[in-house]
């Protein structure tokens, strides 16, 4: 079961998911889970960005999903969206003070050779940011 955490400064929630969910569940759900997962992680990062006053975490998860669905017919939008989502994971980690951050070169090799492993890696790295968010002490009054 995924653990939910509240994103500080908002009513929005984020989930710490099993890294194997985005790697394996798409195969048994005819890829429906993949699109739902992709939307949710982009929405959660956008919520974090709004809470931190940063626009580098994106603002339209629907556009990201559109790029990997209909945009995949042209290939380029899907690749760009996947790249930008990985950059958002890095930005979320940076905003939360997580070190080391997602390795872009390692992610690229995983994406090119075995995409399900890349999505598991991406979720595992995003989980680090959510765990850091969970343990942030309350602001001093």
What do you see in this structure?
The protein has one domain. The chain is built from six helices and two strands, in the order ββαααααα. It has helices at about 20-30, 30-50, 60-70, 75-95, 105-115, 115-135; strands at about 5, 15. Strands 1-2 form a two-stranded antiparallel ribbon. Helix 2 (about 30-50) runs antiparallel to helix 3. The longest helix has 21 residues, at about 30-50. The chain is globular, with a radius of gyration of 15 Å. The protein starts with a strand and ends in a 7-residue tail after the last helix.
Biggest sheet descriptor: 2 strands, antiparallel
Rg calculated over all Cα atoms? 15 Å
What oligomeric state is this? single chain
Uncertain spans: none
The percentage of residues in β strands lies in 5-15%
Number of domains: 1
The average pLDDT value, as a whole number, equals: 93
The CA-CA distance between the termini, in Å, is: 35 Å
Number of strands: 2
The number of helical segments is 6
Tags for this model:
141 residues; mainly alpha; two-stranded antiparallel ribbon; 6 helices; 2 strands; 64% helix
Give a quick summary of the entry.
This protein is mainly α and 141 residues long.
Task: Give the helices and strands, then pairings.
Elements lengths: L2 E4 L6 E4 L3 H9 L3 H21 L8 H9 L6 H21 L7 H10 L1 H20 L7
Helix pairs in contact: 1-2, 1-6, 2-3, 2-4, 3-4, 4-6, 5-6
